Amino acid sequence: xxxxxxxxxxxxxxxxxxxxxxxxxxxxxxxxxxxxxxxxxxxxxxxxxxxxxxxxxxxxxxxxxxxxxxxxxxxxxxxxxxxxxxxxxxxxxxxxxxxxxxxxxxxxxxxxxxxxxxxxxxxxxxxxxxxxxxxxxxxxxxxxxxxxxxxxxxxxxxxxxxxxxxxxxxxxxxxxxxxxxxxxxxxxxxxxxxxxxxxxxxxxxxxxxxxxxxxxxxxxxxxx
Length: 224
Prior knowledge:
Strand order of the largest sheet: 3-2-1-4-5
Mean pLDDT: 91
Number of helices: 7
Order of helices and strands: EHEHEHEHHEHH
Shape: globular
CATH superfamily: HUPs
Largest sheet: 5 strands, parallel
CATH class: Alpha Beta
């Protein structure tokens, strides 16, 4: 069976991506990153999702001591979105404080090393360019550039043993992702999106806003 490495954060996008990869016939190996984020809720969610999906998972613990993000530094305020749903607010033009410097480059580098070591032909990541926070490492041009890195910077690339980074959600909005996830049987009730680690989602951070907006536009109840 063909193998794939899946970046699994515990959020609904990565969970949908995992189930998409499984539907495509891949044996999935999940990487879960503990990188000093504000809370462990997503990490715990990711472990449960991988278990339910019957996929092997590894937690990779790394440190980013220079911080530089509201997700890493509790002294930096998280962005709050109190726009009433269903107001059609678009994502912010400026890159928000929740951007983690070079995060997807770091995660993809670990994933690429893992994929090359186990002979996986694909890396799946749940990045999408629409509807979200304008992160530069969630754009299609970034993934095209990373494909060139794989081609010229790895043994697999030099030997023409192609490893492809797959971004099945890249051009979908949140409502479309949720509908796809439901069709694939993704356990969305296990996912966690809130930037805060309280017992319940805060409902006002950007991540909560876009999740609620997506479920509302999809006409689907959020069971989390």
